Amino acid sequence: MDHTQFKAMLALYGSSVARWDGVSPDEARAFMAGSEDARKLYEEAETLDKALSSFQAGVPDAAMMGRIMRRIGVEPGGGADVLPFRMRAQAVPLPSRKVTGWGLAAGCAAVVVLFAAPFVKTPDVLPGEAPAAQLAAVSGSEESADVEILLADLDAIAEERVEEQEIIGLWRVAAIQSRTVQEQAIDHVLDDLFFPEEAPPQPQDSMDMWELLVEPDSLDL
Amino acid sequence: MIAEMAVTAVIEKGPGGSDEDLMARIAGGDAESFRILAKKYMGLLYSVAYRMFPQKADAEDIVQEALLRVWSKAYLWKAGTGAAVSTWLYRLVYNICIDHKRRTGRQSVPVDDDHPDSGPGADTVLQDSQTGAIVSRAVRALPERQRAALVLCHYEGLSNAEAADIMGTSVKGVEGLLVRARKTLQQDLKKYKGVL
């Protein structure tokens, strides 16, 4: 070890010789034992470190945990106007300036699937009708005189409803996944941004993108 | 022996399992797992936030925002990539601190003394709290990235590589920030008799 390296270690890590990269504590102490200048520099760094340690952070307010749990809608007392944080963060904004190409594409695909999918053909029955009306429509046909045929028709109606719900569920999943992809894409862009040292404020579009992540209240319900 | 190792592993992980297990459950909406993780890391987040913004109200706002983002964005955290949850949390609070400074536009803020230091005697306590306040102002006066490098490396004990990953810069960049931060503090604090 030489004097230059010793000074560099002090400048980087201060007096914590255990943290010195590439230099063992024994090596550092041996060098100091042989150099008065090194010992003087070390004492200065030690004094600075002692002063820095006087800057204590303390502890947060004990009630903060309760406030956070109320914000996420777990503990009572949040108030009727405080929606669960997760619900607001994952709400589908309709309409919203945040709808992107991914969201639009997912929506269009869902519309196509909803109206182009081959439903079970039941000319007298439409999705959304009350079961009683559907039963009456089916029981009025000549073929429904047979109980088994009636039950088969009812099964078809049930399958149709299940298929309808599955399609709606797929649409919701697609919408959520599109937001996930969008937000992951934003994360990647932010990760790739190079922050110059002591740089001036970021361009406005970067701040807008960051606001998407930092300010959940900005999401439209 | 295997049973002993399993018990040891459970004890070391803590209540609720490992941090990765907690994050996976939080992503599924488990509030109790979130409470466990939040209690475990609240002090860490507050430590960083308060040293970046030595106002109790600001620091608590930042911590609250960070934890709420953990709750809402847990599904974005990628398990199995080798990154520790603590590193992700450090990065989260660092980014919120940087954004907080931009949103508030604060350049210099009077430091509060809500957290006086404790010591063995009355005179020592007074001197330490005065020194703490002076050092706090000096740290607060550093440019934000120098301050962040100092907080992460000196106060939080992270390696230069970890701090570089959190700050989105290179190891050389962090080293440059640290050297300048310590040099600036050395010069500033020399003006105060009895501090250095």
Compile the SSE list and pairings.
The complex is a heterodimer of chains A (221) and B (196).
Chain A: H1 3-13, H2 25-33, H3 36-53, H4 64-71, H5 85-89, H6 101-116, H7 131-139, H8 147-192, H9 204-214
Helix pairs in contact in A: 1-3, 6-8, 7-8
Chain B: H1 2-13, H2 19-27, H3 31-52, H4 56-73, H5 85-104, H6 122-140, H7 144-155, H8 160-167, H9 171-189
Helix pairs in contact in B: 2-3, 3-4, 3-5, 4-5, 5-8, 6-9, 7-8, 7-9, 8-9
What can be said about this structure in brief?
The complex is a heterodimer of chains A (221) and B (196). Chain A has 221 residues and is an all-alpha fold.
The pLDDT mean of chain B sits at 82
Main β-sheet description of chain B: none
The run of helices and strands of chain A is HHHHHHHHH
Q: Give the beta-strand count of chain B.
A: 0
Quick check: average pLDDT of chain A?
Answer: 67
Portion of residues in beta strands of chain B equals under 5%
User: Which blocks of ≥5 consecutive residues of chain B have pLDDT under 50?
Assistant: 2-12, 116-126
Number of helices of chain B: 9
How do the helices and strands follow one another from N- to C-terminus of chain B?
HHHHHHHHH
What kind of oligomer do you see? heterodimer
Structural class of the helices, strands and pairings of chain A? mainly alpha
Strand content of chain A: under 5%
Alpha-carbon distance between the two ends of chain A: 63 Å
Total helix count of chain A? 9
Shape of chain B: elongated
Count all strands of chain A and give the number: 0
- Dominant shape of chain A: elongated
